[in-house]
Model the fold of this input.
Amino acid sequence: QKLLGILSSKCPVFMGLLRTVYAKFFFYDPLIRFSPLFLLFINRKAMEINHISILMAMESEASPLIESLNLKKQNSIFRHGIPFEAYQGSFEKLLITLMTSGKDKDYQVDNVATQPATLMAYLAIDQFSPDIIINAGTAGGMAGCGCKIGDVYLSEGEFSYHDRRIPIPAFDQYGVGSYPSFDTSSIATELHLKTGRISTGNSLDYTEKDLEMMKSNKAVIKEMEAAAIAWVCKILDMPMFAIKAITDLFDQEIPTETQFLENLTLASTNLQKSVPRILRTLVR
Ligand code: SAH
Done:
């Protein structure tokens, strides 16, 4: 790490070039992605993070965090009609831009799920050019895989969908998708957080087929935005990972919506406690 630090300060152009080449592999070549030298190089010293964009679907998930990070609402950022809200502030040496997806004008509920998430991710990258994107929010967890209500998970491996069924050769795999997460293993080890694969769909509940797909995605977490954001980040070469607090155990008897409403405050509070600790690990 010391040597990489010296090289970065003495020959920044060469190191920048090397980093760009590595970043390409980071996204697409699992062999290189998991090599110890590479993890050391890309995740810590070499990848300088100054500006982080945190994307969140629901106001109630985001409010405790906005308050504790003392972020200020930014007005007139997006063109007329865009419902998203943006908050900004500094945390340690970082600039933080947090976006929520705002309310639907007709239904007066939060703009959850993949449609707004995709647009929000694009606008975050286009307007703010962050160094990394974090999708923070709540999720359902599989009790059978050890998930507990209130747990905070970091994304692992790839994000996929469990409800995009297109049974035509090649389109079937396109439907499921595979969009990489920034490697969170060192953060998880340092902060004693759990990691798991995340599967995304556009429904709070699920069908038998969805469950089958989640299992084949090896997912332990189910939610409604991450894969959409990860797709935008993949095509625009933007590192991205997710932080999800568990509101419900979807492989249990009690209906998901009952569990969700009961545990939303606990999960949002746990997010508010964990996110600053996670941000701190990215500063160094
Ligand atoms: N009735 C809720 C609806 C929230 S939709 C309300 O009070 O408005 C669910 C949100 O929580 C989505 O943003 C989704 O990403 C997340 N979520 C939590 N648990 C989930 C689960 N089991 N399945 C899918 N999404 C879940």
Summary: The longest helix spans residues 256-283. The pocket of S-adenosyl-L-homocysteine is lined by residues 57-58, 109-110, 112, 137-140, 204, 222-225, 247-248, 250, 256-257, 260 (CB under 6 Å). The chain has a mean pLDDT of 90.
